[in-house]
From TrEMBL:
It comes from the Bacteria. The lineage of its organism: Bacteria, Pseudomonadati, Pseudomonadota, Alphaproteobacteria, Acetobacterales. The keyword NADP applies. Gene3D superfamilies: Medium-chain alcohol dehydrogenases, catalytic domain, NAD(P)-binding Rossmann-like Domain. It comes from Acetobacter senegalensis. It holds the Pfam family ADH_zinc_N_2. InterPro entries: ADH-like_N, ER, GroES-like_sf, NAD(P)-bd_dom_sf. Keywords: NADP, Oxidoreductase. This is NADPH:quinone reductase. GO terms for molecular function: NADPH binding; oxidoreductase activity, acting on NAD(P)H.
Length: 332
């Protein structure tokens, strides 16, 4: 077992350049924990917010970072089932960034944050699996209760969670309208399975939705942006439709369009994936749902670009540039 390992840490909030690779002694898992030998790390946009000090929880310095990794269990804590040793699995990011982080050659994780993914997936795909598809399940199945033939508007559609939402809507027999800012990603979103694509920098979003739905609007709007986008979501939502607001990427104020909501009897639901993570029964249901659809080929995590761990700063800059479709993966 390697005695010295690389761990990514940061000592202050800031841009990607605050990330530093440190050489440290091999950590040992404590009670309820395992040591994962990391084979792949999937970057998550929430990690930018953690790094900048804008997340729901702020870590203590020197801080670790990272929610999603896949690898092999190399060591276990004193009260962990030895059957976990040697298991290939990936992290379900239901832990706090104040306590854990997966950027490095190894990662200490709670045993309750492990998910065994189907053997058909690579380490890279396994790392990219849980966060995006569990988030989409929670927002579209659990919260919005998607039905066959529902029309679903998906903003930030080229993100990993947007891609997962396209896959899920198709699996449930719905109709997806993917929204992207530039035409560069249009063909890729169609290839991913989107039924319609709206390029918001070139097209009138409201007019295009009216055209696609013959004026009826969408039953579900799935949005991680907020800000001015919320008013547009209300403009396109159908009567008795639901807007699932699961992020706050916009830096502009989010104004609640109450008057329009009253006219449409619409629901606006704020949703965070921890609503699923914090309920063991709900999480087990979601994991089973995702696993089944990976096995039948409906869900395949899309990998955009791969970086070596030594280029973690460049990987973060690429994530912030938002020119990719799917997941950026880092390999130790």
């Amino acid at each position: 077992m390697t005695k010295s390992v690389r761990i990514v840490r940061f000592n202050e909030f800031g841009d990607a350049n605050v990330l530093q690779i440190k050489h440290e002694d091999l950590p040992q898992p404590g009670p309820g924990e395992v040591l994962l030998r990391v084979e792949a790390i999937a970057l998550n946009r929430a990690e930018i917010m953690v790094r900048e000090g804008r997340y729901l929880w702020n870590p203590n310095f020197p801080a670790k970072l990272g929610f999603e990794a896949a690898g092999i269990i190399e060591a276990i804590g004193p009260d962990v089932d030895p059957e976990w040793l040697g298991v290939i699995c990936s992290s379900i990011p239901n832990f706090s960034p104040m306590d854990y982080g997966v950027y490095g050659d190894v990662a200490i994780l709670p045993v309750g944050s492990l998910g065994i993914y189907p053997a058909s997936l690579s380490f890279e795909q396994g790392a990219a699996l849980w966060a995006q598809y569990l988030t989409a399940w929670g927002g579209l199945v659990y919260v919005a209760k998607i039905r066959p033939a529902d029309v679903v508007l998906i903003t930030a559609a080229s993100s990993s969670t947007g891609i997962a939402a396209i896959d899920l809507v198709k699996a449930e027999g719905g109709i997806s309208i993917a929204v992207t800012r530039t035409a560069v990603k249009r063909d890729e979103l169609f290839a991913q399975g989107a039924d319609h694509v709206i390029v918001s920098d070139e097209e009138d979003l409201v007019a295009r939705v009216e055209e696609i739905t013959s004026g009826a609007g969408v039953q579900i709007a799935y949005d991680p942006i907020g800000g001015p986008m919320l008013a547009l979501m209300m403009d396109v939502i159908a009567k008795k439709g639901i807007i699932v607001s699961y992020g706050m990427l916009s830096s502009e104020p989010t104004v609640l369009p109450l008057f329009e909501g009253f006219l449409k009897y619409a629901t606006i639901k704020t949703y965070d994936i921890h609503e699923v993570y914090d309920d063991p029964s709900l999480l087990a249901t979601a994991v089973g749902y995702v696993t089944e659809r990976v096995k039948n080929g409906q869900f395949v995590p899309r990998i955009s670009t791969t970086f070596p761990l030594s280029n973690i700063v460049e990987a973060h800059k690429a994530m912030e540039a938002s020119n990719h479709i799917g997941k950026i993966v880092v390999v130790p």
